[in-house]
Amino acid sequence: MRKILTVDTPRILLGLLFLVGAIEGFTFIFTGNHLIHPPTSPAGEAFELALQQSGFVWPLVKTVHLVGALCLLSNRAPAFGLAILLPAITVIALFHFVLNPGGIPMALAMLVLTGLLLVAYRDRYRPLFGRGAAGRFA
Q: Is 77 buried (19+), middle (13-18) or exposed (0-12) by CB count in 10 A?
């Protein structure tokens, strides 16, 4: 039961969150229309528009979101899926804390889910930070 609450539920919820975001992002890329677009501050809209108009950043970000979500939802390499999503999670959290305060509750929920998964997968990340890790890659 503990594993369900601390690993499976956060993994599935975070995976669904990023899957929905990826689907919405690809829908915008292919149709120019949003399926879901929560209220966003003017500064947040300007940031999002800049990413979309860059031509390559938005598709790259949404592809990473899709791959990470599929890893989490399929439970195939979930620690890898979380690792590739961590930069996006950081940017999304900062986006809400700095540019779009209305999304802070969602950012906090995402950070809690991420924290639970980081603790659950800590053994898989330990070799990256262990003694002599830098020497193995030099």
A: middle
